Amino acid sequence: MKPMRVFITGASSGIGKGIAQHLAPDHEVIISDCSAAAIKQAQQDLKRQGCHVEAQVFDVCDATDLAQLRKMADENRIDVLINNAGIQYVKPLEEFPPEKWQQLINVMLVGPAMTTRAVLPAMKANNFGRIINIGSVHSLVASAYKSAYVAAKHGLLGLAKTVALEVAAANITINTLCPGYVDTDMVRDQIKQQAEAHQIPESTVINDIMLKSMPKKEFIEISELAGTVAFLMGPYAKNITAQAITLDGGWTAR
């Protein structure tokens, strides 16, 4: 595979940072996040691991930042866009603050639509593009108290299908990865917090709460997502588009 120029949103930690680490040895990677301090720290962490990446402060909801992304794509090329930025908030719908509900939709659905909109003209001009959305198993199923998150992640599938039809004449694909619970620092913190709150062992939280719906009883590793991203960038995936690619340990088989 030839080296590509890759732009990743929400890449200061977790999945985004892990994908950057995986791709950096072979590709030109730009990591971005809305926090200047966080993205700079991520860049330094990756540099210590031997991975050289560019870092950019970027808010998927900011019109000025989106205009800069369009300019970057037009002038310097972006071959691969990875829409990874995400947030979570858990409440019953009747207790869900409207402004928080809107924020989740903005970050995880409107944001990916607008970043995609920004890079498409250049991808069409170059007759090449790979757009990969980091969705969730909640792009396919629901869990109580996560109405905004589930709505946004479901929406990514519709977005990808529509864009795939619009760009079918060009060598551009758009797909959505749908993982179950991924082994990140954030998830590990949630396990610890739940164990303390319920006064139960962390192993009980993992098996009876976090992995209850996953028959294989294993967290998804970031490396699995990164490897899938790399495959979708490659020549053998040129006709895989508009797909929900599920890494869920059997969750949706039930």
What does this structure look like?
By secondary structure, the protein is an alpha/beta fold. It folds into two domains: 5-181 and 220-249, 3-Layer(aba) Sandwich (Rossmann fold), CATH 3.40.50; 183-219, no CATH class. It is 48% helix and 14% strand. The protein has eight helices and seven strands; from the N terminus they run βαβαβαβαβαβαααβ. The protein has helices at residues 14-23, 36-48, 63-76, 98-126, 147-166, 185-198, 202-210, 222-233; strands at 5-8, 28-33, 54-57, 80-83, 129-134, 172-179, 244-247. A seven-stranded parallel β-sheet has the order 3-2-1-4-5-6-7, sandwiched between helices. Helix 2 (36-48) links the parallel strand 2 and strand 3 (54-57). Helix 3 packs parallel to helix 4 and helix 4 (98-126) packs parallel to helix 5 (147-166). The longest helix has 29 residues, at 98-126. The radius of gyration is 18 Å and the shape is globular. The mean pLDDT is 96. It comes from Marinicella litoralis. This is 3-hydroxybutyrate dehydrogenase. One of its GO terms (molecular function) is 3-hydroxybutyrate dehydrogenase activity. Belongs to the short-chain dehydrogenases/reductases (SDR) family.
